[in-house]
């Protein structure tokens, strides 16, 4: 049996706006951590309760009650992972689940790695050999998702910011290290004061990122929704219409949108991470072609597709191409430009749907120009969501939690640097914590430290001999 | 030179181990094998070049000093020899934390070489043989190759059961400056031109690396009045834990500091097209940490001047080393540029600067014991493994020698991990990371450097050296005594309280330390940055008297252990985590193609590197935590 020393936590149910959600913790400190955030009716500690029992109480964090919950308490080895396990049944809602997970992490749990619960279960002998491959599949598929979400859902501006912070940390560390390696050529005496200023300002930047992590400004959380359609079908108008602002450039020239625009909207409590894409058509324009390819690849990864069809034109080959592309996807078809004379109606669409074995696809006539049909679209999306037809993978939240956790570790490491400087420690102590911060931040952008420091030393500082 | 393939004959002396090359790696390897009771022969192209220092005239320096201490703690020779032959000594980074204090000594090169040669000559079980080895002899049983002997240039065959390759920079060596190219090893010594073919035939992959050295000038032609004098430390600290510091306090010689200037740089820039590097005559990869002066001028164009250290090569020679100005520019340019440097206006060059190219291996073909994965009994160490530096070489030579001996004695190899020693970091890096230049030790490469200090190398490694059989009983007992004293004294300080008495307050005031308002133990006071164990002596009434240099060592350890306790304990916790992963060994015959779901990049890397433990696997770039999870699951499957 493999004794893991850390306690892991994650949201382990699909995240929807309705129903019940579960936050799960597993590991040696699971009970202890739960006791830090849970207040039972009778004031009894969970750690003292019998195994495999359910308890009613409240989750609290910083004096504030987050949710009314049922906590399931299971002592290892008779649990899924074989370890002490706590499952907190919350009253659903993305916000509440995130808060509860957050509270667990604040008290010493760390966000689970992809497939980690399953891996622990297997390594602890809770699953037999025949399940090994399935275990590996779980790990890899969750990892693929995590990788994709950390790459695609991490906001470009955040990624850039983190890279900037990392570069500064690396430069400063390399300076200190080059002086330690070659003290006769490079002097680091009195560098503490300069470094402190720099580190304090970096800490401010990281704090801002942490604050924004809570309101989804770091990760694009939500249902990955992609708008597709032929050129000039009015996709960008639909996006602007949904956003209630002019975000995308709209002209009547086909092929105006050449790259992918990404926005986040909240439709009656449903969080959509929505992408406008270039119109799909066979094109010889190189730049437009890139846009079309991107549109198609985004469509393939989407949780939901909004297909904008132009009702003022007859359906053509390009439309058939699109139908083929979205065949296996959750989809809503918007029949746009109802303000113009119709060349295509719902019947035509249903016929093609039938040809592609796509039945029951909602078709919503809209006019982005006249701002008509929005109510029906909202209602349609809501119905799909609450009937569970669309949901978002809860992995995004654990990815997001991992990233916030990483930001917090980086901040902690930088705090230690300041402590060392203020405590009058010698310079070589600074670089240890600086590099810890560097690695934590790297885990967000998917970069490992590797030989970075050594390379930076050689490229930025002239070593002797 | 041509070797004889016709007159094959067999030497009947019968050896267990043949060490090829008698540089810093070879000497340590041969001594270790002989001392562990194996009949050992060491081959060198020239007996005069045993333990030669063909480049800088010093031993130690940042992180390299650590290696020398570690070699010493394990029972190696380098530290003892430099303690007998140094002419100046300095502890670098003294104003920094103890982790980066590093000892560096200027050596009397010729004396160092002769002293080491004498140690070899006097070593029981060890024979020295001047000859170029041209062939490795192997036999194949059940598809595995095994060492059976070596063949030398005369055609003679020396049977042995293990070989340690320590060929340094001699394999197909070529020295170059300007358009001059000579097929020689360093210092004009004979190169070894045949062995590479034999290695290739055994399926060993070779690289070609490059390094360089500056000119040596005649002391009589140097104007020292235009330079800054660099003296040694007042109190000399020995490298070896077995050397009594009192015995080595002596008169030291100085080094001299001067600088290049715009004029120097202009001459270099003007003549860049005549450099063999720029003309493409040299193809080998040079090290970034020891750039030639032309590299520095090109790469750091905004720097107005570079430091130049003029260092004596010995007491009985006028030759001086121009540290900081290695070069492969033509001879006339060398004269011109060196003479722009203040103090060198009339310098006469004794030996020209040159670049040297040589064959070495991709060390990823080695196990962490430094034995080739595919050839039983073949070990290697030193610059041949793609490292650089005397100290790096000695460290690997020692480990390769110990493990060659242990293999023949049927014992498990010694592998130091990254939390135990710089040697562990060095070898782990060499055998797991792809490298495009000679590898130099750096303190930033050691993750746990607070624990891997040069001052505690004995506490980390002497026990291992003792178990291996290279450390004497007396030295081991001394270590146990030292550890006992450290523990007792540390505990005493944690329990000894001082109050607000006037002598205490006065002492604190003297060091600008906050006055006490209540009682406090001495350990807490030592932790204050402005105070130390030594400074508190006047108020520490019951402090025991520690005899001799053991006492000095104990006090140093007590001070460090108490002062940096928080940091040290943090690193110890990290080491625990690290060890867990290191202890999960990956079966040697694992077939990664059978591990489903590994991402392609991870699969390729794991197949290429074949890490020995999960910890090592996790350090390979391109292997993600998820791949590690998959690997763990697969290994569990395999185990059941």
From TrEMBL, chain A:
One Pfam family cited in the UniProt record for this chain: MnmE_helical
Binding-site residues, (6S)-5-formyl-5,6,7,8-tetrahydrofolate: 24, 87, 126, 465
InterPro entries reported for this sequence: G_TrmE, GTP-bd, GTP-bd_TrmE_N, GTPase_MnmE, MnmE_dom2, MnmE_helical, P-loop_NTPase, Small_GTP-bd
Required cofactor(s): K(+)
Domain of life: Bacteria
Record-annotated membrane-spanning stretches: none
Keyword presence, Cell wall biogenesis/degradation: no
Subcellular locations according to the entry: Cytoplasm
Stretches assigned to the TrmE-type G domain: 222-386
EC number(s) recorded for this UniProt protein: 3.6.-.-
Positions bound to Mg(2+): 236, 257
Positions with a binding annotation for K(+): 232, 251, 253, 256
One BP term from GO: tRNA wobble uridine modification
Subunit organization: Homodimer. Heterotetramer of two MnmE and two MnmG subunits.
Known role: Exhibits a very high intrinsic GTPase hydrolysis rate. Involved in the addition of a carboxymethylaminomethyl (cmnm) group at the wobble position (U34) of certain tRNAs, forming tRNA-cmnm(5)s(2)U34.
Protein name: tRNA modification GTPase MnmE
Organism for this UniProt entry: Mordavella massiliensis
Gene: mnmE
From TrEMBL, chain B:
Positions annotated to bind FAD: 21-26
Pfam families: GIDA, GIDA_C_1st, SAM_GIDA_C
KW Glycoprotein (keyword) present: no
GO molecular function: flavin adenine dinucleotide binding
Compartment(s) of residence: Cytoplasm
PROSITE patterns with a match to the protein in the record: GIDA_1 (PS01280)
Span of domain tRNA uridine 5-carboxymethylaminomethyl modification enzyme C-terminal subdomain: 562-633
Gene3D superfamilies on file: FAD/NAD(P)-binding domain (3.50.50.60), GidA associated domain, C-terminal subdomain (1.10.150.570), tRNA uridine 5-carboxymethylaminomethyl modification enzyme MnmG/GidA (1.10.10.1800)
UniProt keyword rRNA processing present: no
Cofactor(s) named in the record: FAD
UniProt KW keywords: Cytoplasm, FAD, Flavoprotein, NAD, tRNA processing
Main location: cytoplasm
Xref: HAMAP family: MnmG_GidA (MF_00129)
Function: NAD-binding protein involved in the addition of a carboxymethylaminomethyl (cmnm) group at the wobble position (U34) of certain tRNAs, forming tRNA-cmnm(5)s(2)U34.
Subunit structure: Homodimer. Heterotetramer of two MnmE and two MnmG subunits.
Family to which this protein belongs: Belongs to the MnmG family.
Protein name stated in the entry: tRNA uridine 5-carboxymethylaminomethyl modification enzyme MnmG
